[in-house]
Amino acid sequence: xxxxxxxxxxxxxxxxxxxxxxxxxxxxxxxxxxxxxxxxxxxxxxxxxxxxxxxxxxxxxxxxxxxxxxxxxxxxxxxxxxxxxxxxxxxxxxxxxxxxxxxxxxxxxxxxxxxxxxxxxxxxxxxxxxxxxxxxxxxxxxxxxxxxxxxxxxxxxxxxxxxxxxxxxxxxxxxxxxxxxxxxxxxxxxxxxxxxxxxxxxxxxxxxxxxxxxxxxxxxxxxxxxxxxxxxxxxxxxxxxxxxxxxxxxxxxxxxxxxxxxxxxxxxxxxxxxxxxxxxxxxxxxxxxxxxxxxxxxxxxxxxxxxxxxxxxxxxxxxxxxxxxxxxxxxxxxxxxxxxxxxxxxxxxxxxxxxxxxxxxxxxxxxxxxxxxxxxxxxxxxxxxx
Length: 386
Description:
Blueprint: H1 2-14, H2 20-32, E1 36-42, E2 49-51, H3 64-71, E3 75-77, E4 80-87, E5 90-98, H4 106-123, H5 129-133, H6 141-149, E6 154-156, E7 160-167, E8 175-181, E9 185-193, H7 197-216, H8 221-236, E10 242-250, E11 255-261, E12 265-270, E13 273-276, E14 296-299, E15 305-309, H9 311-314, E16 317-318, E17 321-322, H10 324-334, H11 340-355, E18 363-370
Antiparallel strand pairs: 1-2, 1-5, 3-4, 4-5, 6-7, 7-18, 8-9, 9-10, 10-11, 11-14, 12-13, 12-15, 15-18, 16-17
Helix pairs in contact: 1-2, 1-4, 6-7, 7-8, 10-11
């Protein structure tokens, strides 16, 4: 089994980017007698698994492909194997292979699917093949800009797991999120830019670039906000500004630093109970010149779940009724057994069902689980990255 797996890894790392799946399919037929190999990519909305080649989208809840995607484990059903195509927590989709004689084949095939995920991440910026194929409709220009800004949609590390999602996925304008980690800390930002269309997306692009620039210079969280505030004010003189929530989590201690510049809100789910964290709401970034920002602190406990939620979630309306805090609290409690990606997918799915259509206003949800410090005797993580 090991030799075919190694050959498959070699193929996906050397094949031309647009031929990854056909090259892999040829090897699987030769080594395993598999005659049907298909990559199903999750779409931007997290509501469909779309074949790379021609075929029907998988949208039915409970379908083996969705069970594989949701639980991140191989699924065997009626002679077909479904394998998670994921790397470091970034869930790209599912590899469907058939015929598969029995479940014992799935372990080796799952390694091949993981190798495929790593290679897809490597070549994604150099080809449009996979981005184009995972769209069920055309993105607006503003949405194209926003999705290109993102660091990913989900992340898994020994000490934390997180995920985020934008809505309306194919027409989002000014809402976005960002994150980074260095093994000791994880930084998160949710951004709610004012304006419509490309104007909003360009404002968010400026803010994201300024925040990253300050963060990569090793500047404290409050000063990251201040420098970004100044960059936006220098360009727009207070005529355009944006709301943001900045977080920095110490992965060893669970101490969370926060700067609330005009909201989105921060919600804690602990032991099944939901509580909005009482942060000081400071001026949005770019509203005034020379604003000073202050950090606040929240001590997390192992197993805590945080949600960063923009106003577009609470203010969504269906039949002239606002979604509101009661519906939000109920839905957040229901996410307790889910992964962070499952949680944001379920929350925004519930929101779309409530409004009975696509959202008309932007909404962003980021979910972070702090799993607690994972340390060995030398004080560093002993678990490999996923």
